[in-house]
Amino acid sequence: MTDGSPDRLRDSTERDRGNRRGEPARIALAVTRDRNAELLSELLDDHDVVEAGTEVPPGTDVCVVDPKGFAEVREALSAWKRRERPAAAPVLLVAGATEDELWTRYAEAMGESLDAIQPVPAPRRAVRARVDGLLSVRHESLLAADRRARLELYERAMNGANVGISIADATAEDLPLVYVNDGFEEMTGYDRAEVLGRNCRFLQGEGTDPATVRRLREGIEAERPVAVEIRNYRKSGEPFWNRVEVVPVEGDDGETAHFIGFQRDVTERKDREELLAEYERVVRSVSDPILVLDADGTVRYVNEAAERAFGAGATGAAAAELFAPRTAAAFEEVFDAVRETGEELTRDITVGGSGGHATVYQFRLQPETFGDETRIVVVARDITEIKRQQERLSVLDRVLRHNLRNKLNVVIGNAGTLADEPDDEPAEVAAVAERIEAAAETLLELGDAARRFDVSSDPAGSPSEEVDVAAFVRSMAPELSEAHPTAEVRADASGSVTARCPPQLRFCVEELVDNAVARGAGTPAVVVSVRGTADAVELRVSDDGDPMPDVERRALSAGTETPLEHTQGIELWLVRWAVEGVGGRFRVEDTETGTTVVLTFPRR
C-alpha cells in the first residue's frame, strides 16, 4: 500500500475513534476569500481547522476549497489522495454557482481531485452536514483500511508460521476447509484449490488409527479443544505423523463459528522414539558395560553387562561406589573433567576383580542432552588382552629397534674400514664394502623412519588433533629448506585452514619432501601447498622430478603389496596409515612437470 503503513493507519484509526468520542478532526482550508474562510472556521470551530498551502498538512481528514484555492493546491490534493490510499481523502469544493453548473465545470476533476460540491450561499446546516458526511466517509475508510492491514498482517503471519494452519467452517455441513496456510500446503503437498471446501479427513489412509480418529471427532463434536498424533498421508502417498490441535472459535453470537487446526509434522520425533525403544533393547543386549549418570554422578541406567561387571544392579547409587577407592578416584577425575568441559573423554582404568585378577577397561564418557537435562553416558570396554598384547609388542619393538641400530652401526663401521683400506687392496673388497654400507644405510633409514613415526605419536593424547595446516606448513618451510640445501623447497599456504590431523603430521611432510627431492635431479623444485574446501583440507607436495615408479604407485593406491608389486621402503606407507587413521585420504597424481602427492584431512 502506498504510504499506507500499519502505523499510519493505526494513528488515523485512533484519531477516528477519538472523533467518535467528540474529539476534533483536522480540516484543511484552501479558501481564498477571507470572509468565506472566516465563516467556515466559525462553522467548524469544534474541529482542528488548519490552512492548506503547497502541501496538505499531515493528519488532515477533509479538505475544503474554493475555485481559486482549488486551482492553487490541486496538485497537492492529488498527492495527498495518493498518499492516503486505500483510505479516502475527501475534498469538498465550495463555490458560488448552481450544483449543475459546478458539476459541469468540474466533471473531469471529480473522483480524481474532488469528491463533493457545495453551492453557496447555502444554509450553515447544509454546509455542516456535507462536511460531516465526508468526515464519516473518511473515518469508515480508515477503519476499513486498518482492518485490511490487520488481515494482511495476520495472513502473512500465518503463511510465515512453521506449522500448518487450517480453518474449517463450523456452521456448514461436514466442516469444509475455508483457509489453509503455506505451511499446510508444504506439509501435505496439496494446493489450496485442491483442499478448500473439503473435510480434512482426506489426509487419512489405511495406516490411520481408527481410535485416534474417533478421539478427534469426539472433541470436535463436543466443541472443545482436542489434540492427537495421527498418521496422515501426503498427496504423494507418503505417510507422516501429524500432531493435530483443533480449537473452536466463537462468532459474534457466542456460537462456534470456526475450528482452527494447527498441524505439526512430528515424524522425526516419532521415528526417534521408535529408534530409542529399539536402541534400549540393543543396549540391554550388548556385551560392553553401559551406564547413564546424571550431572552429580548418580546412576540412572545400567545394562546387563554393567550389572555383571561392576555389580551395578540398582539405579540411584553413586557411580564411584561401584569401584574400589583407587579406581573410584580415577573414574571421578575423568567424570569431573567431562562435566566441566562438556567434551567427550576416554580413559583406561584398571578395575580390581575377584581373586586378585585385574581388568583394564577403556571408559568413554560422553555428555548427552535428554530433554532439558544433561546426562553422562559411560561405555566401558574390556581391553585387558589388548593391553597385554600392546605391552608384548612394545617390548619386542623396543628390543628389535635397539639391537638393529646397534648392529647396523657396527656393520657400517666395518664397511667403512674396508672401504678405507690402501689402494693396493683388491677393488672387489672396496666394492663389497660400498654395497654393505649402502644396504646398512638403507636399513638404518627404515629403522629411523619407524622411530620418528613412533616418537611423533603421543600415547597419552588423542589419536587426532585440530591443526591450522596452513600455519603449520609455513612454520616448517625454513626447516625444510635448511634440510635440503641443494633443492628449492617453497611453501604455498596462505590464510588459515584447520583440519583434523594425525600427531605424525610433521613426519608426513618431512617424508613427502624427502621423497620428492630424492626423485629430482640437479636443483629439484618442491612446492608444499595447502588448499581448503568446505569439508576437507588438502596438503599437496609437488615436484618436478622423475615420476613415481608405477609399481609403487599401484601398491600405494591399492593399499596392499604383493610379491611382485611393492614399495622400496616403508616411509610412504607410514604417511598413508597416519592420514587414514584420522579419516583422511592419500593419493598420487601425475602432472605435466612431475608428481604430486595429495593428503586430504577432514575438517571435522
Q: What level of helicity do the residues show?
A: 40-55%
Global morphology: elongated
CATH architectural arrangement of the largest domain: 3-Layer(aba) Sandwich
How many distinct folded domains?
5
Strand content: 15-25%
Q: Write out the CATH superfamily name of the largest domain.
A: Response regulator
Low-confidence stretches: 1-21, 455-462
CATH topology of the largest domain: Rossmann fold
Termini, distance in Å? 50 Å
Note down, in words, how this protein is organized:
This protein has a 5-stranded parallel sheet, with helices on both faces. The longest helix is centred in the first third of the chain and has 37 residues. The chain is built from 17 helices and 22 strands. Helix 1 crosses helix 5. The N terminus is likely disordered. 26% of the residues are buried. With 604 residues, it is an alpha+beta fold. It folds into 5 domains: 152 residues, Rossmann fold (3-Layer(aba) Sandwich), CATH 3.40.50; 111 residues, 2-Layer Sandwich (Beta-Lactamase); 97 residues, PAS domain (Beta-Lactamase, 2-Layer Sandwich); 70 residues; 138 residues, 2-Layer Sandwich (Heat Shock Protein 90), CATH 3.30.565. Keywords: Chromophore, Flavoprotein, FMN. Pfam families: HATPase_c, PAS_4, PAS_9.
